[in-house]
Amino acid sequence: MTFKFDKLYRLGAWGAAACMVAICALIALQVTFRLVDALLVLVGLSRLGLSITGVSEIASYLLVGATFLGLAYTFVHHAHIRVTLLITRLPPAIRVWFEVFGLIIALAISLMLSYGLVGLARESIQYNDVSSGFVSIPLWIPQLVLATSVGLLCLALAEALFMAIRIAIRDPSSFCEATAPDESEGR
């Protein structure tokens, strides 16, 4: 399957990668500050006391971004775990309708989740909700990342659903389930 919005899904994947790099940088910096303090104490000097306030809270929000921003990309590149033990034994003409059914269910759940996340972000903006840690981070920021990520997944699911329906109606016997990344991807 060729996805028309693949560049958008790749942008989400790059966002997830940026979150992971930011987590690594924050943790490495925090460890370096502690190591410098330990070495100073070891040689008889006083600590500098450098630290990043709220690093664990910031890292946890970045981890949520890293997890959810990659959802659509991993879906279109067939990296989500799928249990296909029974449906792989079915003929393609029947299997495509199971695929359509599964995509409808996944899209419905994702749309409900997206709707709820958008409502949650609106509430956080309306009431000026902030995190309760050392750093007061407006909660609408991570919530908006979540809503955007699930929205991207909804777009990918809708795109896959339309392609599966088209195959199911036009030529159901030609359906082959994509289980590995496209070979054209490496070019």
UniProtKB/TrEMBL annotation:
<comment type="similarity">
    <text>Belongs to the TRAP transporter small permease family.</text>
</comment>
<comment type="subunit">
    <text>The complex comprises the extracytoplasmic solute receptor protein and the two transmembrane proteins.</text>
</comment>
<feature type="transmembrane region" description="Helical">
    <location>
        <begin position="12"/>
        <end position="33"/>
    </location>
</feature>
<keyword id="KW-1003">Cell membrane</keyword>
<comment type="function">
    <text>Part of the tripartite ATP-independent periplasmic (TRAP) transport system.</text>
</comment>
<feature type="transmembrane region" description="Helical">
    <location>
        <begin position="140"/>
        <end position="165"/>
    </location>
</feature>
<feature type="transmembrane region" description="Helical">
    <location>
        <begin position="58"/>
        <end position="76"/>
    </location>
</feature>
<dbReference type="GO" id="GO:0015740">
    <property type="term" value="P:C4-dicarboxylate transport"/>
</dbReference>
<protein>
    <recommendedName>
        <fullName>TRAP transporter small permease protein</fullName>
    </recommendedName>
</protein>
<dbReference type="InterPro" id="IPR007387">
    <property type="entry name" value="TRAP_DctQ"/>
</dbReference>
<keyword id="KW-0997">Cell inner membrane</keyword>
<dbReference type="GO" id="GO:0005886">
    <property type="term" value="C:plasma membrane"/>
</dbReference>
<keyword id="KW-0812">Transmembrane</keyword>
<keyword id="KW-1133">Transmembrane helix</keyword>
<dbReference type="GO" id="GO:0022857">
    <property type="term" value="F:transmembrane transporter activity"/>
</dbReference>
<dbReference type="InterPro" id="IPR055348">
    <property type="entry name" value="DctQ"/>
</dbReference>
<feature type="transmembrane region" description="Helical">
    <location>
        <begin position="96"/>
        <end position="120"/>
    </location>
</feature>
<keyword id="KW-0813">Transport</keyword>
<feature type="domain" description="Tripartite ATP-independent periplasmic transporters DctQ component">
    <location>
        <begin position="44"/>
        <end position="165"/>
    </location>
</feature>
<keyword id="KW-0472">Membrane</keyword>
<dbReference type="Pfam" id="PF04290">
    <property type="entry name" value="DctQ"/>
</dbReference>
